[in-house]
User: What shape does this take?
Amino acid sequence: MFKGGNMGKMMKQVQKMQAEMAKLQEELEDRLVEATAGGGAVKVVATGKKEIKEININPEAVDPEDVEMLQDLVLSAVNEALNNAEKMVSEEMQKISGGMNLPPGLF
Assistant: This one.
């Protein structure tokens, strides 16, 4: 199927891709994404490893009579931040893999 040189070249490319993905995994801890809800009333910052780093709530968004609205805003901002983190990771992985659709967790 593969001639010796082609298989060797492919293995070197896979090894390079693995090294780049390992480096990216380390960098993702420091890469941040953010999301807001309620026109900026709630802001959430997450890492590329999908870890929430900050939640900022504008004091004007705190209404003791409507705690449910604040909860919804926080939930919405957190989910959007995590989705943004996933999108960032996916885009970076696409750059490394050259557009190959590799299953998550392969490397």
Summary: The chain has a mean pLDDT of 86. The longest helix spans residues 67-97.
